[in-house]
Design a protein that fits this description.
The chain has eleven helices and 14 strands. It has 357 residues and is of the alpha/beta class.
Length: 357
């Protein structure tokens, strides 16, 4: 049986990857140490997801409480399982734009050093295995904020004649922009992944994601936009929109659609591939539009206000160009839109969240 290693296996993308590849006939080793609880508090813990996966797939999934900042432990895991190893999905990260500034060393050593440890272990022991890296659109820094956006009733938008109107491609430069410390640590990892592909011939790919979402997301104030927004709508928790009058635009991709992109790449891997990935023009919304949808689905109003200052380096408008990935993998397509994603998040979580009185 082929073997896959999934880091961050209790998180949104990691848990989706475990389920997908076990059901596709893989044995899967998960790497998870519940750092999300440290970053965002107990409500963001990945332990419930890890336990669910262990119980659902007792024969084909094993979870290792391993720290990716521990180079020796990472090397040992890869070395001991190299014989059957075909695929590594690296979804472990410090994922918050804001949290990174509170502990820069923690953020950088997880996101950059941890990625280096995995790549080097793979180079030493199984360089032909596919390496899939969950990168981010934050590698472009705040360069998208200099696009000539026009203000509409519920969103910011590009003029139709603009070269990026259909979506932002990977040709957008990443230099001379304000990234946030999170963006820098992820850009460092992104470049390492590309370099190990080009220099050592390892089949690697960087998926520079927009907003990654889905019903398994343990949304928190600093991470997990749609999940946390719906949770606040359901529970009555207060929500703050940071800047841009709530008209900032994000594209959103369901975790299942993203993991199917991983599978498509693994079936026909390339060396040092890079793709922007997200909902594209098919699945995007502004904050105001997302709030309205959450209120319609939950049947209650969100308790929210507008903060004057945007987050440092945050995007005013981001829609991913999917054309390159669709060209290289024409069998892949999006299956979830914004409303469908939000309805799924609500249906799966409303009972556990409870309803405010």
């Amino acid at each position: 049986m082929p073997l896959a290693i999934v880091t961050g296996s209790g998180g949104l993308i990691g848990s989706e990857s475990v389920a997908h590849f076990v059901e596709a006939g893989f044995d899967v080793l998960g790497v998870e140490n519940d750092m999300r609880a440290y970053f965002f508090g107990p409500s963001a813990s990945t332990k419930p997801q890890t336990q669910r996966l262990v119980e659902t797939y007792p024969e084909n999934f094993r979870s290792f409480e391993l720290e990716i900042r521990d180079a020796e432990a990472v090397d040992r895991l890869v070395r001991e399982h190299a014989a059957g190893l075909e695929l590594v999905i690296h979804a472990a990260a410090q994922p918050s734009h804001d949290w990174a500034a509170t502990e820069p060393f923690t953020d950088f050593t997880i996101n950059a050093n941890g990625t280096l440890h995995l790549l080097e272990a793979l180079r030493r022991h199984k360089p032909e295995a596919t390496f899939v890296f969950c990168s981010t659109n934050k590698v472009y820094g705040d360069r998208p904020n200099f696009l000539p956006l026009v203000e509409l009733h519920t969103r910011l938008e590009l003029p139709e004649g603009h070269e990026y109107y259909d979506c932002i491609p990977i040709s957008m430069p990443i230099d001379r922009s304000l990234h946030s410390l999170f963006g820098v640590s992820k850009a460092s990892a992104d470049l390492l992944v590309q370099e190990y592909g080009r220099y050592f011939g390892i089949p690697t790919v960087c998926f520079r994601g927009g907003c990654l979402t889905g019903p398994n997301h343990a949304g928190a104030r600093l991470h997990g936009f749609l999940s946390y927004l719906m949770r606040c709508t359901v529970t009555g928790e207060h929500y703050t929109v940071y800047g841009y009058d709530g008209k900032q635009v994000r594209d959103n991709i369901h975790s299942a659609d993203l993991v199917r992109a991983f599978a498509a790449f693994h079936a026909e891997p390339r060396v040092a591939a890079v793709y922007n990935i997200g909902g594209g023009r098919d699945s995007n919304c502004s904050m105001l539009e997302a709030i309205e949808l959450c209120e319609q689905i939950a049947g209650r109003e969100l308790n929210w206000d507008l903060g004057d200052a945007p987050r440092i380096g945050d995007h005013r408008w981001w829609i991913s160009d999917l054309a390159e990935f669709r060209r290289d993998y024409p069998g892949w397509r999006l299956t979830h839109g914004i409303e469908e994603i939000l309805r799924e998040i609500h249906a799966q979580n409303v009972e556990s969240w409870g309803v405010a009185v």
